Amino acid sequence: MPDPGPSPFRYHLELTPAQLKAVHDALRELASGPGSDERTREIVDEVLAMLPGEEHIAQIRPGDDGGTVEEDVAPPDEDDGPGPPDILA
């Protein structure tokens, strides 16, 4: 197989919504933090351009794990038997 020659590295990253928000927030902080030089800001801007937009990121909550609302909040299981005794009665 011939050598494909020099090329930039490519990475595939699978993140939960909460992880995506953490990465986004960390990159924004890195770009605006003290000691951030022009090249760092350029790189961060390139990466942020690959991520979903601000309006999408703003809707993500820290506990979001990628499931739907129905999956995140399971209905109570009615087959658990009787509840704990009422000791106040």
Overall morphology: flat
* H-E order: HHHH
Structure summary, number of beta strands = 0
Give the percentage of residues in beta strands: under 5%
**Number of continuous helical runs:** 4
What is the CA-based Rg, rounded? Answer: 23 Å
Helix content range of the residues, please?
40-55%
Q: Which regions have little confidence, pLDDT < 50, spanning 5+ residues? A: 68-75
Helix/sheet category: mainly alpha
Write the layout of secondary structure elements.
Blueprint: H1 17-32, H2 38-50, H3 54-58, H4 69-72
Helix pairs in contact: 1-2
What does this structure look like?
The chain is an all-alpha fold and 89 residues long. It has a domain at 27-63. The chain contains four helices and no strands. The protein has helices at residues 17-32, 38-50, 54-58, 69-72. It is flat, with a radius of gyration of 23 Å. Mean pLDDT is 78; it is low at 68-75.
What structural keywords apply?
89 residues; mainly alpha; 4 helices; 43% helix; flat
At a glance:
With 89 residues, the chain is an all-alpha fold. Helix content is 43%, strand content 0%.
